[in-house]
Amino acid sequence: MFAAPSDREALRFGEKSLTYAELHRAAGTLAERLRGHTRVAVWATSTLETCVSVVAGLLAGVAIVPLNPKIGERELEHILGDSQPDLVLRDEPIVFGTPGEFPDPGPETPALIIYTSGTTGPPKGVVLPRRALTSNIDSLAAAWQWTADDVLVHGLPLFHVHGLGIGILGVLRLGGSVRHVKFSPAAVGQELATGATMMFGVPTMYHRIAEAVEQDPALADQFRRARLLVSGSAALPASDHERIAKATGQGIVERYGMSETLMNVSVRFDGDRRPGAVGLPVDGVDVQVVDEQGRDVGIGAIGEIEVRGPNLFLEYLNRPDATEKAFRDGWFRTGDMAVRDPDGYLRIVGRRATDLIKSGGYKIGAGEIENALLEHPAVAEVAVTGEPDDDLGERIVAWVVPAGEAPEPSVLSDHVAKLLSPHKRPRVVRYLEALPRNEMGKVLKRELS
Ligand code: ATP
Ligand code: MG
């Protein structure tokens, strides 16, 4: 599961760092204490200690439940009640003892129980076996030409699959280094200027990077040096992709994934970095785009993404009903909608529940309208939703954070009608100071009504 002990730096958090040799000793020492347990919760502060606790759990063969350190009382109660950990670790001091041997617990043993972001409802505990992690990291290594030579700048939380499952555990399997930063464009730029090679981020980070590199040519030069910038967890607006490419020469590699499946689809390192597209299925993962009956919708039509492969989770903890509903004929139904380009590249339209608007007999994806609105200079941020309408079934509503003075709503509606087509015109435009977002920067559309 992890690269062998060596003098290579594995993890650096501020002033503190550990080599692979030190990491094995520290995690092995804690793993001795975890032997015999089944499930251990880890208070996932952004610290070296959190990483050591997670590695210790994996060595000992226990399932780790990472907890958002800013979690509210109600959600904490929900997660602890649901997962029933034997033990909760919080900033466990690092001790270098003399650990013994740990037998491999086998590929189907639960490794992580990740609670979903709760974007569409109460968080569900996703039980990920060890083979989901190892197979997915190996597929991503192939897709991104990711090796032990890479140094990852890491500014993501440690309680989701993006930052923990792929960021930290990916690097530690492949034998490279993690440098953790409190995210800012300047902090990432500084690391890229001093040996870091890659960054994983969410779209809100890339939005800030787009603004910053346009204003600061020295920062743009630092980003120019990166080997690879990857975005995921939510749709990267095409406008941010283009702005960063123009200022730095870097085409961002977008990937699509979720807690239940890890990363399914990605643009490959040597592939076409097409704004608004997430690329092709990664090695070993089958993806299909289907209608409600499970039939392939073909090129250019909207359908639901279904996934099959060794990257899949085992079950939703304590929710056999939800687990059963999530599968059809062995395929996992993601609940996300996509369109396929002629060469197979996927474009994510959004979630079936909130981003697919049925208006006037058309099926319309919110993401396409959001991208069109972001091309208007008066729009800083936007989310598009559907609202019940007597005539149309649903009407398109644009929730807009204006870039300066808010224009007449018809200006934005006409912009969309002209750029896309008249039936995609927002019927209602509502201005807001900020969009409701979770800690991954995802817009909470259920709070927009
Ligand atoms: P919940 O399941 O609790 O509602 P969630 O789905 O946001 O929360 P995660 O598993 O963390 O929880 O996120 C996965 C979702 O994020 C995907 O199903 C998809 O909707 C979205 N997503 C991830 N990557 C991308 C991407 N590149 N483009 C668009 N959406 C993405
Ligand atoms: Mg989900």
What does it look like?
InterPro entries: AMP-bd_C, AMP-bd_C_sf, AMP-binding_CS, AMP-dep_synth/lig_dom, ANL_N_sf. It holds the Pfam family AMP-binding_C. It is a single chain. The protein has 449 residues and is of the alpha/beta class. It contains 12 helices and 25 strands. The strands form 6 sheets. The chain has a 9-stranded mixed β-sheet, sandwiched between helices. Strands 15, 16, 18, 19 and 20 form a 5-stranded antiparallel β-sheet that branches. It has a 3-stranded parallel β-sheet with strand order 4-3-5, with helices on both faces. Strand 19 (331-340) and strand 20 (346-351) form a beta hairpin. The model has no long low-confidence stretch (mean pLDDT 95).
Structural class: alpha/beta
Mean model confidence by pLDDT? 95
So how many helices? Answer: 12
Note the beta-strand portion: 25-35%
Task: Let me know the largest β-sheet.
Answer: 9 strands, mixed
| Overall radius of gyration | 22 Å
Helix content: 25-40%
Low-confidence stretches are none
Shape verdict: globular
Bound molecules: adenosine-5'-triphosphate, magnesium ion
Top keywords for this entry?
449 residues, alpha/beta, binds magnesium ion, globular, five-stranded antiparallel sheet, 12 helices, binds adenosine-5'-triphosphate, nine-stranded mixed sheet
List the helices and strands and how they pair.
Blueprint: E1 9-13, E2 16-19, H1 20-34, E3 39-43, H2 48-60, E4 63-67, H3 73-83, E5 87-90, E6 110-115, E7 125-129, H4 130-144, E8 151-154, H5 161-174, E9 177-180, H6 185-193, E10 198-201, H7 203-215, H8 217-224, E11 228-231, H9 238-248, E12 253-258, E13 262-266, E14 280-281, E15 286-290, E16 303-308, E17 315-316, H10 320-325, E18 327-328, E19 331-340, E20 346-351, E21 356-359, E22 362-365, H11 366-374, E23 379-389, E24 393-402, H12 409-419, E25 428-431
Parallel strand pairs: 1-9, 3-4, 3-5, 8-9, 8-10, 10-11, 11-12, 24-25
Antiparallel strand pairs: 1-2, 6-7, 7-17, 12-13, 13-14, 15-16, 16-19, 18-19, 19-20, 21-22, 23-24
Helix pairs in contact: 1-2, 4-5, 6-8, 7-8, 7-9
Bound molecules: adenosine-5'-triphosphate (ATP) and magnesium ion.
